[in-house]
Amino acid sequence: MSENKKKPVHYVLWVFQVLLALLFIFAGGMKLVTPYEEMAKQMANGPVVFSELFLKFIGVAELLGGLGLILPSALRIKPGLTPLAAAGLVIIMIGATVISLKMGFAVALMPLVTGILAAFVAYGRWKLAPIPDRSQMAASGIHSVSRSQA
């Protein structure tokens, strides 16, 4: 595939990566800083009440997944971790969708769409427009603009 054909997909993937990263960093951060008692009140109306340890685990996974959507690709250090982070977030969203379906389809729509977007990022960064790491760029003669050159 020529470089010109990759560019639009590349930019679309970056937009989705940033938006999903913001969503998951916020959601994971809130799970980590919100007291369990307050989260338990919110879950009381839901179909399942999760333990504090499980919610903290999900919060850490979402936070790290959100960072994994951006940092490896932006820094070009192990950019292959970006599709893995997106795939991990897809797994979390599958669980969220299944749990939310017990409260109705409308409630499950948000995690379903989020999971589909994360799957698109995973596939896109794996097959459609992978980001080369620094060693691949140096081997192919591609030079990134350093701050001193800008």
Which properties best describe this structure?
77% helix; 150 residues; mainly alpha; elongated; disordered C terminus; 0% strand
Summarize the structure.
With 150 residues, the protein is mainly α.
What does this structure look like?
- There is one protein chain.
- The protein is mostly helical and 150 residues long.
- 77% of the residues lie in helices and 0% in strands.
- The two termini are 29 Å apart.
- The relative contact order is 0.14.
Major sheet summary line = none
- Residue fraction in strands: under 5%
Secondary structure class reads mainly alpha
**What is the rounded distance between the termini?**
29 Å
Spans of at least 5 consecutive residues with low confidence: 145-150
Number of strands: 0
Q: Radius of gyration, rounded? A: 18 Å
Shape: elongated
Number of helices: 6
Query: What is the typical, i.e. mean, pLDDT?
Result: 89
Question: Roughly how much helix do the residues carry, as a percent range?
Answer: over 70%
String of helices and strands? HHHHHH
